[in-house]
Amino acid sequence: MYILNTSFMVEYEVHDHWLDTFRNRFLPHLRQLGFTELIFTKVISNDQEGHFTYSLQIPMQDLSRYEEFTGEILSEYAAVYRPVFGEKVLWFGSLLKKIES
How far is CA 60 from CA 3, 24, 34, 52, 63, in A? Predict the structure, then answer.
């Protein structure tokens, strides 16, 4: 089993709009695509200046789903949301391999 972790750094000035869009458009879109086990969290840290950080974790059974997500879905996300939020929302992903429960 794998876990895809995508972290989003969101500047204060676009935070509310981004969060609303993410919750009400992007997450439902992922569920429609079959990604049903979504873990969406806000990172709690004292050193966040000028931005909020969020984490989206998605368990995946195999690497083909990971490749689909990073190749197609994140590209689609960038095409739709980068024109809206520009550099005020940045993201990066990490692939984790589950070792034990």
Answer: 6, 22, 11, 26, 7
